[in-house]
Amino acid sequence: MSNTIWVLVELENGQPARSSLEVLGKAAQLGRAEAIVFGTNASAVASTLGEYGASKVYAHADAVYDSYLTLPAVDTISDLLKQHQPAILLLATTYDIRDIAARLNVRHNMGLITDATDLQFDGDTLQVTVPWGGETVVTATFPKQGTGIVLTRPKAFGLERFEGKTAEVETLSPTFNAESQKIKILERIELQSEGPSLEDATVIVAGGRGLGKAENFHLVEDLATALGGAAGATRAIVDAGWLPYSYQIGQTGKTVKPNLYIGCGISGAIQHLSGMKGSKFIVAINKDENAPIFSVADFGVVGDALNILPQLTEEVKKRKAQ
Amino acid sequence: MKMYVCIKQIPDPNTVVSKLDPNTKRLVRSGVSLVLDPGDESTISAAIKIRDTIGDSEVTVVSMGPASAQEAMRRALAMGADRAILVTDPALAGSDALSTARVLAAVLKKEEVDLVFCSTESTDGYTGMVPGGIAEFLGLPQLTFAREVTIEGQKAVIKRVTATGYQKVECPLPAVVTIASGAFEAIYPTMKGIMGAKKKPFTQLSLADLGIETSEVGEAGARERVMTIGSAEARAAGQVIKEEGNSAQAIADFLQRYQLL
Fold first, then answer.
1. What ipTM is given for this predicted complex?
2. In B, which residues are within 8 Å of A106 by CB distance?
3. Are A53 and A25 in contact (CB under 8 A)?
4. Which end of chain B has less neighbouring CB within 10 Å, N or C?
């Protein structure tokens, strides 16, 4: 089996997405990394991907990928898979890539492993690490021949630079039929200033009664912004009128399962816990050491959220800047 | 319009800590309370709402699972779905996402489909790979991560969640549409609904009924194999510290250790 690993590099505003480049770097550490890049700006980007680990880049500069979701990318990658047989298709877990992976999986009858945090080859055997719940880690592999798809958990890998490395670029020229132009993007609305929505945020910072008063909620929002996440609330403070219902996490509000949840001044009533305990990592700050939230927290601080939040926001900004 | 909702019965996420059986390497389902996936409640509710808006339509729930899944389907019927189709077969145990998509698509191929709804992902497995797989098997376009769905003649238009906001996306019908979790408020079954559910059409199918070979699905057909199941380090017992002036650094260290920054 060849150790060639393909990575689909997504473009965001014409530039390679950081999530894709992180996966590309990991691929280059595992074997021969080959990138696939689509979209109007694909040619310009292709020549820069060597520096992020690509030995080869398949590029197709065409606006069709920017106007139509999923199907053009599936068709082009599918064509490539008929000509080559990489060991793995290693992918960042994003909205668009998940859609593409699901279809390729079926079209090529492939193995597929999601939510991987690491992978390695032991001889010819691929070993993929997948955390399961909070207490278990599974190692999985593809027992059958052929290319397998591995979707990786966001931020599983850091960004790697390969100074001076250049990639050979192969320009693709597939043709599309009307069938592949069925999922049309009519409009894009950016809500960047408000951050991701609660249900879809990978990081959530939530506040409760322990914040004392509505005016202090901005401390929660500041930390959420610094972490690139969304702010949420308990029913208690929504009922108290501090915030609109759209912020409410819990049985009667939104069920969230971000990668990271930070509860500030939240005791952890069942009503709230049932809406957030699916989070992958839970951090809690509360004055009462007997607060139920500590029973589900991976990391807890018995202390006043009002003191700790501003310091934590500064610390996060400082470390992210490094 | 003929609408279908693919649903799943799962261990109750509110009371059960999901575990893997070290022998079978599958999710433990015995001895735990099983429920209709809460995400599916939201998705079924979306379909019912659309049915009632456009009129002259029918909502069928489709599932693959053990006979116990009948209970989850009865709940869907009590919520207002019109009929149910359950594929149950011992050979299906251990099916991966591809096999699940194959089986559900085989059911849908026998029907005249206008719209297929799925939740974006299940609340137990989270792979999110089944809906796109069904779409591929059926040769239909898929609209995913929908927060809002509008049917305009022979087109579906959705508001699709993205990392930075949303997109308005359209495709012609028939199509597969996935609903983002919690985007639609779940209908709570009434007593009348529960009583009425007992009289609604309920079909049970086996793999043979669908013309699928047992070797293609279940454990035999799985394209992935779990090699080891181990304990995650340091996560089993959470660490709790007392504030002594350096908590912010301690939290930031924790975030960095787990690559959360």
1. 0.89
2. 98, 101-102, 132-133, 136-137
3. yes
4. N
